Amino acid sequence: MAEEVTVRAGTTDDLLAVVRVLDAAMLESDSRVLRERLASGEVLVAERDAFVVGALVLDDGHVDAVAVKRSYRDRGVGTALIEAATDRVRGSLTADFDPDVRAFYESIGFHVEERGRRLWGVYES
Question: pLDDT by residue (tens digit) across 19-38?
Fold first, then answer.
């Protein structure tokens, strides 16, 4: 895991910070859905010095979104979020994503297959 970052379950108090991280990565986010996911423990946040620098949104074992602030990319934050998610999910963790992040998912151990313009990844824990 990234040394200076800790990963924890997000809370509803993290809503604005999570929205900002997802928006900065140009990922769609619905604040109502995010609030529900935060309340149910399906959002993980990576933080440094009490500031959220990354977020991962789960939907029943599926990575709905994962994003890291630009200044923290390539420092293990995304990997730490995925690893924390695999610890929470029983069985397989899945994700669908753009081809430009394929190397990231494969480096963590996801089996990746093509599905049209998007890719589908499965991580067996």
Answer: 999 999 999 889 999 999 99
